Amino acid sequence: MSLDQMLRLFAVAALGCNVATLGLVAAALRRRGRPRRGGLTSGPGLPGVGARTVVGAAALLAIAATLGSLYLSEIAHLEPCRWCWFQRIAMYPLALVLIVGLLFRDRTVYRYGLPMCVAGAAMSTWHYLLQHFPDLEGATTCSITSPCAVRYAWEFGFVSIPYMAGSVFVLVGALLILSRHRS
Questions:
Q1: 159 SS3 class
Q2: Structural domains counted in the chain
Q3: Which residue segment(s) compose the domain that 92 sits in?
Q4: CATH number at residue 129
């Protein structure tokens, strides 16, 4: 599979993350006010899905994003810029934290994972903005060989690598919030 095909596949996966996030938000809003048997209101999200399943899905997403970023740098030889590294610094341990939380059945794993998701999503958003508005940040913060404003991918006219990473951070964060309500 060529790099262009892989980038297209990653872009489609990012859009899938966006759809899943919107679906979780819509399900949470729909279920929020509905009374449950016994007069209690039901929690947000998907009915019948346990916290362990939700954390498992979040872990798989973080692992896939980690492997995808490693593919881009180590196999496709795309040099990560400074902001890409910052996002990796949030994503790589997130995958590990979620795996450990899943293995040890830690019902509070969201406490550790959610801050990484928020930080990663913020960094991805900033990096995405830099790709649109390179003047937001001075030229001294990124290297000449790997400038932060370069778009290695620009699928469907808007999906870049920071957009892909941000999509995963947001969906994993939404899943961790859901897991909190499930535990």
A1: strand
A2: 1
A3: 3-22+49-182
A4: 1.20.1550
